[in-house]
Amino acid sequence: MSGISATGTVVAPPIVVAAVVACLAIGTGAAYVRGRLSQIPDSLIDDAGADSVYKCGFCTEGRLREAVELTKPYYGHEYVAPDVAVQWLMKSPKGFVQIINSYGELCASFGILGLTPSFTEQFMAGKVSDTQLSSQDILSLDKAKRSESLYISGVVVRDSSRHRGHKRAGVMLWCMLHYMKTVYGLTKTRRLYAVAVNRKSEQMMKNFGFQLQGRKDERVDRCPIYVLTLTKKSWAGLMRKIPDYSQMCKCNFRISRKRPRSLARKVASAGALASASGGSLPPDETGGQVTVLFIAGDRGGSQRNQIQTPREFESLGEALGGSKHRDKFTLATPIQAATLPKLAAAYRDRPTVLHFAGHGDDRSLSLIVDQGLLVTEAPIVGQQLVRILGSFPVRIRFCVLNACASAPIARLLVDARVVDVAVGWPGKVVDATAIAFSRALYRCLGDGLTFSQSVTLAIESCNPGEPPILHVGNGVDPNVNPFVSGTDA
Q1: Span 196-224, pLDDT tens digits
Q2: DSSP readout, 289-327?
Q3: Which helix (H) or strand (E) covers residue 384, if one does?
Q4: Does the predicted model carry a pTM greater than 0.70?
Q5: Which end of the chain is more exposed for a tag (fewer CB within 10 A), N or C?
Q6: The domain that contains 298 carries what CATH number?
Q7: Number of domains present in the structure of the chain
């Protein structure tokens, strides 16, 4: 995710590491910005009248979205949509930190996350990449405190190439170390791990005590991973490498056992809750909230193809985010390079809408079979998908199979009564057409148009050679939109 790579304020982890190393390098007079090493003055002279006093605390949703937007011009297809970052924030509200100057401007942000042992093991072994990280792999703060390993992520500094940016990077590292001491404590030995993007960043990590954990030729992301053992002694050593910003930076890392109300409401509405009998619920019993889950197979094929899947996901977010009823919709953390276990576990997001993106150059509907160094993929079997979706505690109201030759599976899902409405393509569909169709479809649904209207207008907007087919279950009216208040399914 991209990402956390992950992404939170979310910069892809290789970039994250570069930024973290940049902070570490402040004491030696060098700054690392997205793979480029540039010398800076010996004394970090602030721009005239800039910043003054900094306030550091846990990241709010608004500031997290702002931080994510700061990364957009620089990271292209690695950019993670704000809605995805917010999903991570919901899972770990104390995992992201914001640094604000006296003028109320966001100067920097970072994240430190605990990840599940299974994902950590696979990632450290190089068998999965950071782009496969989902909210299900993120630990709550209580569980993260018991973890021996933490992942540095979500680092961003405003105006990083200017003098003020250099100072902000130093302030951020100072805050990061205080965050570790206050939130996690120093009594437990922990391992902080990160990925090196090139030889220069790799050398910097070595200079500051990071140890090689895995060579790049052993990893699917083709980047070496380094680990720093953090103890009370090593923490003190890092503090000596940077200036003391205590007189100009005020940190507030007080932790209340009470979850912030705004996040609590979003967590409660992130997906429809199943009824006590396990049956599906009509929209009014779920508060009208619609959770959309994006699922993609392996991003194989050509280099160009590998940027299409994130673009397709972004098109969903942009369309729904700009729609009339945007508050009704929530984008769950996407499942990239999906496997059958991940698909089976997707019920935890309680999706109302499932969107499947095609795989590779032929946009086939495929899942990953093996996440080892040799990755293979296999087509989704219709009956298997019926069994999985039919066992979800919340009924799938709408399923979009945005892949070549997916119409038969769409029909099967509807006939088996595991989804109400499904869309599939009878023949081939190219990336540009599939993305344009997705953008128009979700914009129309978000504006309150019916299933039939939305699909028709989406088809007209992309002018496909052989249009997708809308399949509707028995007793389901395609001329309604059950996702918007005032309509009925």
Answers
A1: 766 766 776 787 788 998 888 888 878 88
A2: -EEEEEEE----SSTTGGGHHHHHHHHHHHHHHTSTTGG
A3: helix 382-390
A4: no
A5: C
A6: 3.40.50
A7: 2
